[in-house]
Specification:
2 domains; 7-stranded mixed β-sheet; 11 helices; 11 strands; globular; binds adenosine-5'-diphosphate; binds magnesium ion
């Protein structure tokens, strides 16, 4: 099978819809084969990519602004977790039904607004036709050399924190699927990861990641990378009013803690830095909650355990989104 030939339509799309969001100096108005970027001296590049497939990561008939916001939000979330400042991005588009010219025009406009807000110009990409619509963004960020916050630095005695509320990504998805409304729908449609807060966690957080698979699974990822365990108090996990109304039992609470799509941060830091973290959260308008502590692993079990107020361990029937 031969790939469809590049045609005028593709040229038109790039020139008209995407070139306005490119940085002329770096990406030559998207008229060259590649872009060229000079990193700030003494800085490292931080690189991440996220792909969204129609019918999997957004409903097939999702509006263009929803696709753009979820694409940018999920990628910015990774840079926030690593404490990096966005500098540029690449966009890969597989155009398939039901995406038409009107959808793409709308998508490009919303994408451009978001990229401008994050000061993250478009450096290039690729465009193909496909049976199934999908879109992927690769983001590039910068930070002073050697300062990236990894998943692996949690220390015994650290406090465990999360930003925002947990579970609204799950609740919003239920609304999107059922066609119902609720406050959480905005969290699902347009995730807003705490980028400025994340950038200031450098030197404060010992370990960090973004909550994309579900809080329980993602805390397990921190534990596994850091070779530690965690003890998390269920009652300290921040829920929205809608989340509180939904979580009326262990099963429904587990939905919120394993649902994914929150695009908030989970991180660990020394108890001595709690006042500084609270100040930072206030200054950047972020809700910050201390939910647990880092502990030594028991028999090589690198997991977060959840306890109720009396210290009794609560077993969750599900911990996160399974990709495969
Ligand atoms: P090539 O054949 O050399 O890969 P393309 O025709 O695919 O070149 O792309 C031409 C230019 O348009 C390149 O600068 C590329 O980065 C850019 N481009 C293509 N598709 C996109 C897209 N979806 N978003 C942003 N830039 C794109
Ligand atoms: Mg190409």
């Amino acid at each position: 099978m031969t790939a469809p030939r590049k045609n005028n339509r593709e040229f038109h799309l790039i020139e008209k819809l995407f070139a306005p969001h490119a940085d002329a100096k770096t990406a030559g108005h998207l008229r060259d084969d590649a872009a060229s970027y000079t990193p700030t001296p003494g800085h490292d590049l931080v690189i991440s990519t996220d792909m969204l497939v129609s019918g999997v990561h957004f409903p097939a008939h999702a509006a263009a602004d929803v696709v753009a916001a979820r694409l940018v939000g999920s990628n910015i979330s990774d840079l926030a977790a690593k404490s990096a400042k966005p500098v540029g991005c690449l966009l890969n588009l597989a155009i398939g039904a039901p995406w038409d010219e009107a959808f793409l025009t709308d998508f490009a406009a919303h994408l451009g607004t978001l990229l401008a807000a994050y000061e993250m110009p478009l450096w290039g990409g690729d465009t193909v036709q496909s049976q199934q619509a999908s879109v992927s963004l690769s983001v590039y960020g910068e930070l002073p050399s050697g300062t990236m916050i990894t998943r692996a630095g949690a220390q015994i005695g650290d406090d465990v924190y999360v930003t925002g509320v947990i579970g609204d990504g799950f609740l919003g998805l239920q609304h999107a699927l059922a066609g119902t409304r609720g406050d959480s729908l905005a969290a699902y449609h347009a995730p807003r990861p705490p980028l400025l807060f994340g950038q200031k966690l450098r030197g404060l957080a010992h370990s960090c990641l973004d909550i994309s698979d579900g809080l329980a699974a993602d805390l397990d990822h921190l534990c596994t990378a850091s070779l530690k365990a965690m003890r998390v108090t269920l009652a300290d996990i921040p829920l929205s009013p809608e989340g509180q109304a939904y979580a009326d039992g262990a099963e429904t609470l587990a939905d919120l803690l394993s649902g994914g799509d929150d695009y908030q941060l989970a991180f660990t830091a020394a108890p001595d830095d709690s006042a500084q973290l609270a100040e930072l959260a206030a200054a950047t308008n972020v809700r910050l909650s201390k939910i647990g502590t880092v502990q030594p692993p028991v028999e090589g079990d690198y997991r977060a355990e959840f306890v109720d107020r009396s210290g009794q361990i609560i077993t969750l029937h599900r911990r996160g989104y399974q990709h495969f």
